[in-house]
Design goal:
There is one protein chain. The chain is mainly α and about 140 residues long. It contains three helices and no strands. Helix 1 runs antiparallel to helix 2. It is rod-shaped and about 100 Å long. About 5% of the residues are buried.
Length: about 140
Amino acid sequence: MTDAQFQQPAAESRILLASAAPSGGGGGGTHKASVTPWITAGGVADELHQDMSTALGDLGHAHDGIKAGTAGFASVAALSTILGTWETRLGAVRSECQRLSGDLKKAGVSFGENEAAVKTSFEAVRNSSKIDDYSKGR
């Protein structure tokens, strides 16, 4: 088949990968990934976990003794209910931050290990490839 006989597919039937797009999408070769953002995010989540633990303690201390001397006031019952809901919410946030901290750090370590393995495998192929020998006529 000659080039003249070959018909180009209609534009709407072509599939382009985002990474191969000339502009307006991926493919610019500027995407750089690293372990650092994952580890940093894990550290931030760990800090938030610690901050939520402190906040829960502070919230509890702020309500210490509120019932003494205020018996019979409707606001005391309302404050007790609100305290319970805030403790539940902050406890859930604290638990999620703890989970995220571990998961993000683990993702960073896995990413780094995978990146090193891929680099090593490409270097092995590059070092054993005969393509350069063929292109130089050896």
